[in-house]
Write a structure and sequence with these properties.
With 88 residues, the chain is an all-alpha fold. The chain folds into 2 domains: 32 residues, no CATH class; 41 residues, Arc Repressor Mutant, subunit A (Orthogonal Bundle), CATH 1.10.10. Helix content is 62%, strand content 0%. The longest helix is centred in the N-terminal third of the chain and has 22 residues. 9% of the residues are buried.
């Protein structure tokens, strides 16, 4: 079916997707999600799971690195750490 796709005639959304991940990937997205309203989260990582990983990986000095790694602010990382300390 990939060969049958006229990329120039695609809806702009699907054309953009095909440019990002290729026609085959775009067709998978189309088949899976067509007709649905999709909201894409702003963060790649789940807030609760990222917080757990921050607590596991924090070494006393790496809040900035953890913030960058998980896509949250350094302020958020510090808040996670403070909340953990208060819960003890």
């Amino acid at each position: 079916m990939k060969e049958d796709v006229d990329v120039e005639a695609l809806h702009s959304f699907y054309r953009g997707i095909s440019e990002l991940i290729g026609v085959e990937g775009m067709l998978k997205v189309f088949e899976q999600y067509r007709g649905m309203q999709i909201t894409i989260p702003i963060h790649l990582y789940d807030r609760n799971l990222a917080a757990r990983h921050v607590l596991e990986q924090y070494n006393g000095k790496n809040s900035y690195e953890l913030a960058n790694k998980y896509g949250y602010s350094q302020r958020w990382v510090v808040k996670v750490l403070k909340t953990q300390q208060q819960d003890r």
